[in-house]
Each structure stands twice: as C-alpha cells, then as structure tokens.
Amino acid sequence: MQHINESASNPPVIIFLTDFGSSDHYGGVLKGVVASICPSARIVDLSHEVKPYRTLEAAYLLWASYKFFPKHSIFVCIVDPGVGSGRKILLARSGSYSFLAPDNGLLDLVRSEAEIDECFEVKTQGSSFVFSPVSSTFQGRDVFAPVAAYLANGVAPGEFGPVHTLSRLDSPFVTSTKKLSGCVIHCDRFGNMVTNIKNDVFDVLRAIRIKRSLIVQKVKYYAEGKKNTLSLIRGSSGLVEIIMREGNASRKLKTEPETGFTIEWQ
Prior knowledge:
Elements: E1 13-18, H1 26-37, E2 42-47, H2 55-65, E3 74-78, E4 89-94, E5 97-102, H3 108-113, E6 118-121, H4 139-152, E7 181-187, E8 193-198, E9 205-210, E10 213-215, E11 218-219, E12 230-234, E13 239-244, H5 249-253, E14 260-265
Parallel strand pairs: 1-2, 1-3, 3-5, 11-12
Antiparallel strand pairs: 4-5, 4-6, 7-8, 7-14, 8-13, 9-10, 9-14, 12-13
C-alpha cells in the first residue's frame, strides 16, 4: 500500500534519534525503509549515539533539538529497551511536529513544556502500514520507519491506531529553589554534564554537590574557567552545565546520565 506525497516542492523531513550506533546496519536499514516508501523525504540523523537504553538522555536530545527543524518534521525516536514487550508505540503531535516513540518516557521532556494536540497508539498487528510479521527485536525497521514514511506521504495520524490518553506529568526540570536535588541528563563528547536545572535559576544557584565534589565556581564562557577546575555555566540548551575548561568533567567525576546530585541555593 503506497501513499505518495504530492508536495515535492516541500519534501517532508524525517529525523532519526536512536541508540543503534554506527557500526551495525540498523540505522541504515531505517533509511532504506523510508526511501522505499517515501522517496521524496529528506532524512536527517539527529544522533544514533545515545548510550544504549538511556531514555532520559534521548529525551534531552529530542527536547533540545526539535524546535530548530522545519515545520511538519517527523521525529522517529528509538531508544527502546522494552522492544517486543507489551509497551506501546506512540504517535504524538504538537503544533506542526510529529513524534514517534515508545511509551517509556522518551517524550516526557518535550511534553512537559509543549502541548500535545493529539496522541495515538500505533497498531503493530493487522495494519497495512507496518511490515508483517513484526519482529520482536527490530521494530524500528518493521513499525517505526514505515509508519514515519507513510505519515510523510500524507496518511492521517488517526489511521495508524486508536487515540491514546497520556498520563499526567510532573515537570522533570528544576525551576525554583524549592527543589533540593537534580540529576545529570546528558554528558556530551567534551565531558560537559548537562543538568536538569533551568538557566532561569542560575543566579540564585550557590552550588551543586555531586558525589564528593562541591562545585561553586560560575563562569560565563568556557575559557573563563580554571583548568582542572569544575565550574557551572549556563548551557546553550537552556540548562545549567557542569564543565571543566579543556578537560572532561564527566570523566573526572566518573558520572553518567541519571547521576543524581544535591543543590544549594543562595
């Protein structure tokens, strides 16, 4: 069943975010599926290097990135430790953006700040929009990629499955001095540690205590910090980061996403 997008002058953009890495064939196969069903689509790799199974890290990368893409972009988010189980696959729409993701918290950061206009549970059995039989280990190929391609071809979201009601969600961000703890949600390749503290409260942030380190120094830009000294900085995504000038803060502290810390306020 092929649905062809007639808007060749404005081809849809499909963005992949996965923990598949680049050494295996998985990410390439996703692109092959999309190219077979919606050859006009532009395909973008946001990242295939999410640490395996780290849904919070994927949630951050999606939240920090999606608004910089064209309207009507389709985000295919596959960090899915529950693949093949009874977990749901969701198709959510917010404004002009569409998101395909497992129902495992991957969309939580986006939906904590963006209104979800509609959400559907994608049918994985008896649907003409998925491959059959659906693999219990590679549903990115059999469900996520073909559904994204048909969506790009103009199939209405409600055709993929029934309406799904999302549960109530507390903010995952630290936005006031009432919260006394937080966590690292991403460590980039430079070792900068992105926290869940909003930049809005940077001025009243006195210190972060993580493991045995108390970090009190604040800087405006990376080079302002002292070498081999941990510092706090307003990050470009709108979240406070723990950094070390020309060093690797994450390696120094032996931390990874989801490492917790306590907060001291002025």
